[in-house]
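Materials and Methods. Structural model of Class I SAM-dependent methyltransferase. The 265-residue sequence of Class I SAM-dependent methyltransferase from Actinacidiphila alni was retrieved and submitted for structure prediction as follows.
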Amino acid sequence: MGGARVVGAVTRGTTNPNRLRRMDRWIAAAMEAELRRTADPVVVDLGYGAAPWTAVELLGRLRAVRPDAEVVGVEIDPARVAAARPYERPGLSFAHGGFEVPLPGGRRPMLIRAANVLRQYEEGAVAGVWARLCGRLAPGGLLVEGTCDEIGRRHVWVALGPEGPRSVTFATRLGSLGRPSDLAERLPKALIHRNVPGEAVHSFLTAFDRAWASAAPLSDLGARQRWARAALSLREDGWPLLDGPARWRQGEVTVPWASLAPSLS
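The predicted structure was written out as tokens:
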């Protein structure tokens, strides 16, 4: 990609082993069919940070689905790329780049994962970055963009296809949760400033807290049972959840993007 302009800004680079395990687990399930079907199972870990752990772990988790899956870690900081190079092996490589997603030979990734990358950007920049990244996807590909805490207990992400955003997933270590709205601090950039009265995401989290409180009698059976009952209550109240009990027991809930999309104001 000689001479190509690198697009983006250097992030803080904070990373920890297993920080993105919840997102990885969801990706492996959501992308299983496409990963098995594609002739070129290459994925990109965009902005992996100061250490390559997330790229290494993503490869392992995807190879449980597709044994010849390939991960390319892309970082805008050349020093981070150099530091990651000793970890390269067949199926795992690292490249200098940004939102232009530099893959040789015109390859297009089946997945771009961008975790904790857009947090530092202005809200108004998000749509343009999303469009640029989605434009790099292979047919059937997915962009997953979101934010989590430092040790991966709380995570919220948006899944997007070439047509734009599709869904929002809330995922948490249930033993650490006080109430579902604790996840608000990890909303991705497109939503975090919209958690105010009158916005759909605020209405959703308020409803989730109410359902969580109503499910308190199930606490003696464990947080999983309480979370699942709260999720079911959300569905009964008209929220169009896209997943079911198998995912709820993992501490996840996925909602269509259209149900949480910011207002136009």
